[in-house]
Amino acid sequence: MPPRIISVLAWITLLAIAAATLSPIGLRPHLASVSFERFGAFALVGLLFGLAYTRHIWLVLLFVGGAAIGLEVLQHLTPDRHGEVRDALVKLAGGVAGVGTSVVLRMLFRKAIPLS
């Protein structure tokens, strides 16, 4: 898959996570346990950003981590949501796992995943 398509998917995924995180609690989709959803969502966004911006892995790591923390902080601006350190740590762990997975995939499939 071309890096441009992956980057578009990464941004769309991050926007969907932001919408789910900041929407009223009753509109939040439920697929599994809340911690698993948090971890999985940020693992996916970390993976996609890591594959889209392979030359900037450290910036991707900072960006995904900043997004995790920023969304938790922004929840304090909504009337029925609340950000917690524990939730931010789960999101951070997912993001790091996703970016790490992108690095491993890049190493395994060096020819198939070009530097971008």
Automatic annotation (TrEMBL):
<protein>
    <submittedName>
        <fullName>VanZ family protein</fullName>
    </submittedName>
</protein>
<keyword id="KW-0472">Membrane</keyword>
<feature type="domain" description="VanZ-like">
    <location>
        <begin position="36"/>
        <end position="104"/>
    </location>
</feature>
<dbReference type="InterPro" id="IPR017015">
    <property type="entry name" value="UCP033367_VanZ"/>
</dbReference>
<dbReference type="InterPro" id="IPR006976">
    <property type="entry name" value="VanZ-like"/>
</dbReference>
<keyword id="KW-1133">Transmembrane helix</keyword>
<feature type="transmembrane region" description="Helical">
    <location>
        <begin position="89"/>
        <end position="109"/>
    </location>
</feature>
<feature type="transmembrane region" description="Helical">
    <location>
        <begin position="58"/>
        <end position="77"/>
    </location>
</feature>
<keyword id="KW-0812">Transmembrane</keyword>
<feature type="transmembrane region" description="Helical">
    <location>
        <begin position="30"/>
        <end position="51"/>
    </location>
</feature>
<dbReference type="Pfam" id="PF04892">
    <property type="entry name" value="VanZ"/>
</dbReference>
